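Lab manual, section 2.4: Encoding a predicted structure.

Procedure: take the sequence of the chain (332 residues), apply the prediction step described in section 2.3, and record the output as structure tokens. A sample record is shown.
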Amino acid sequence: DQIITLTITYNNNEETTQTIKTLTDENGEYQITITPKTTGTIQVTATYAGNNDYTSAEESDEGTITKVEPFIELESEDTWYTEDDLTITALVSYEQGDEIIHINNDDPTLYTITMTIEGDNTAYQATNIAFEDNTLTATFNAPFTEGIGTITITRAATDIYEEATATAEVEFITKPEAEITIEAEDTYYADDITITGTLFDVTDEENPIPIEDATVTIEVYINDELINTVEAEVDENGTYTVSIPTTIDMIDEEVTLVAKYDDEDYTYTTDDTTINVLVKETTLTVIIDSTTILEPVTITGAILAEDATGENYLPDQIITLTITYNNNEETT
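Recorded output:
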């Protein structure tokens, strides 16, 4: 229970001096914890005033307060496409005893993130640097040239932290080139529109490769207004087939069918075709046999529709017969 006066000064600057009093425990020992005001040297002088039983005493010591040394764990894709924006992530941390502390919500302006690609004189600068859930994210905007890219991230030194830097490599390659086709023929109303097409990897134009099991999207437009979207699977031969119903709105209008393939591992590709939805032309016949007034009159006929397969008789159609004698409407 003896009073000890601690005088603490940083870098021999008296303006930084602070004085703290503390008591010794039953063993004559004391301990305090303080938060450093700055980096550099720290001088501590302990003073004991003494009393009737004990003489006064004084002792000094000096230590060093250093900046924290952060480290950066930079993560990027090993391989990336020249046509796509590249997003990188990083954890910025430091060691405190046996614990790893992540720096979160840090000031993005402290960071410089650049990239160079071998054989390319362009200095790529990352954009959209931000922190979320302890993780830094940033984006490099495409396009890039082919080759090995070296990403460098640097956090500038501050009063608390030393400068930190890290690098990572990524190989930029060109996406394989995809090519889609679409075909369809004019269709009669009430029949389905049958759509066929192909999807191939044409990176090597002389040796196209089917993009098997891919899903293509078909969009249906009437006068540039999207009215339907369907999907189709590509088979082992690189072909696809899908049917869609016609609607009455399609009659006498321009119907455009658009095929699309949008996959992150291939170049975007699209194709389109335009068809007409037709109404089947019908032909009606009527035959009446002349007879005597004492015999029944037999009237026969048929209704036929003409389509791509030829003429077809139409069953279960209602025919209205209007019968008049001697052009006298009163007999109708």
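Check your result against the sample. The radius of gyration is 43 Å.
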